[in-house]
Design goal:
The chain is of the alpha+beta class. It has one domain. 19% of the residues lie in helices and 40% in strands. The strands form 2 sheets. Strands 1, 2, 3, 4, 5, 6, 9, 10, 11 and 12 form a 10-stranded antiparallel sheet that branches. It has a two-stranded antiparallel ribbon with strand order 7-8. The protein is globular, with a radius of gyration of 21 Å. The chain starts with 15 loop residues before the first strand and ends in a 12-residue tail after the last helix.
Amino acid sequence: MMENISTRKKLPKAPIKEVSIGISMNGLFNAPEDLDMFYNNFSLKDKYSNREPLKSITFEVGAEPKVIENASQGSLLSNSTKDEIIHIESNRLMFIDRTIYSDFDTFWGKFTNITDSLCETFKKEIEIFDISLRYVNNFSLPISNLHDYFRILPMIATVENEDCFANTANYLAAANIISSFDGSVQANVKTFFNALSQNKLNIVFDIDAHDIKPCKMCSSKDLEGRLLFLKDFKNKIFFSNFVDAYEIEDFK
């Protein structure tokens, strides 16, 4: 039995700047030849023609501190404009889309093309232990009556004895939210506030939802129900933190 998926109308202008899906898998991409085999058989190789090695950065502390950059086991595949990225590392694949967001079906279609090619290459049931769906929203709201629009508020005190001694320039709020219906579904939610002026805040509202129930994938169809549930969970977090998202001018 699954919780009913909410139905709500789309925002005419959703403030989505980046969306990604990630899957963590057992026993894939553990060896460099796995990456080569996938890329050589990848049906979308012409579209994602840029291939770069992943790099790891470490800091060496000493008399002369150093930043050490090394190639790690993994690859970044991207299109010609580098706004669609496939991030592959040991046991994990993530698709990041920074193009103008139209709707979930279009984004989901891009991802299924990648995962279907993955299944076709390895020709086996793929064990998955984490599915993630992340939406990064970016928008601006007035400072003076922020509470009339948005329910997450910068709450550090800058007034003493009725005197304002400072203005908040930047602020970060973070929370881990667990579904009351399914404890294996949770979201890491970060809200960044940046004062653009005395009157306006820029807000990054980052919702990263995860389902950590183990499952098996033979095709992208095996993930569809789980992703729709994560999308609904993400939407509930987004809309419940606005007084009325449909009344915000930038979203119309």
